[in-house]
Design a protein that fits this description.
single chain; 225 residues; Rossmann fold; Arc Repressor Mutant, subunit A; 4-stranded antiparallel sheet; 8 helices; 14 strands; DNA-binding; DNA-binding response OmpR family regulator; Sig_transdc_resp-reg_C-effctor; phosphorelay response regulator activity
Length: 225
């Protein structure tokens, strides 16, 4: 799951990134209004943490831009401006949640999880697909009673595929999802093939075969029966 932290206080932003990275989120940062707008225009995210007071502009304008493009990404406003007017205005524009500073990192993590679960997995904690059972809270994958030993990257890739079931996803989109804006600096996306190969082998070894289809020259597809 990929997050964008829009926060001009670098120490706070780095603390959030450190904590959420330990929770297996891929985190990107923007410290100014302009940086945030550039990332929002180019990349896709599962959730955005949005400060209101930013160098160069107002976070509410970023939120307006996101919603004007019908971008369904989850947005949590995280701001010291905790007045009722700001909260109501942000929620009216299209924010999914509002968290006033200072806040506890575990609470932030659970709010992010709740939004992603609601938007992408129909509010379920347990995701079922092709005989797989995925516990989104414990981040474990099992077939029957056998737990699959997936790496963090393989787990993230599996969720991305299932979240886009029956759609063909390009290698470029997968590379961006796994490595964020660093994908633009890579010479090729061969690492995606390596992770797909390992994930398919683990799934097949547990009896879940042919779930991931290689669409020649295009990308990959999770086929749900």
């Amino acid at each position: 799951m990929k997050l964008l932290i829009i926060e001009d206080e670098q120490e706070l932003s780095n603390s959030v990134v450190t904590y959420l990275s330990s929770e297996n989120y891929l985190c990107e940062q923007a410290f100014t209004y302009q940086e945030a707008m550039e990332k929002i225009d180019v990349y896709d995210y599962d959730c955005v943490l949005l400060d209101l007071m930013l160098p160069g502009g107002n976070g509410l304008d970023i939120l307006r831009s996101i919603r004007s493009k019908r971008n369904p990404v989850g947005v949590i406003i995280v701001s010291a401006k905790d007045s009722l007017d700001n909260k109501v205005q942000g929620l009216a524009i299209g924010a999914d949640d509002y968290l006033a500073k200072p806040f506890h990192l575990p609470e932030l993590s659970m709010r992010i999880y709740a939004i992603i679960r609601r938007k992408e997995f129909s509010a379920n904690n347990i995701l079922q697909s092709n005989g797989l059972s995925i516990d989104l809270l414990s981040k474990t994958v099992s077939i029957d009673t056998e737990v699959l030993p997936l790496t963090r990257t393989e787990y993230g890739l599996l969720l991305f595929l299932i979240g886009n079931k029956n759609r063909v996803i390009s290698k470029g989109a997968m590379a961006e999802h796994l490595s964020g804006d660093m994908a633009d600096m890579l010479d090729n996306h061969d690492f995606v093939y390596a992770h797909i190969k390992n994930l398919k082998a683990k799934l097949a070894g547990a009896g879940c075969k042919d779930c991931i289809k290689n669409i020649y020259g295009t990308g990959y597809q999770w086929v749900e029966e």
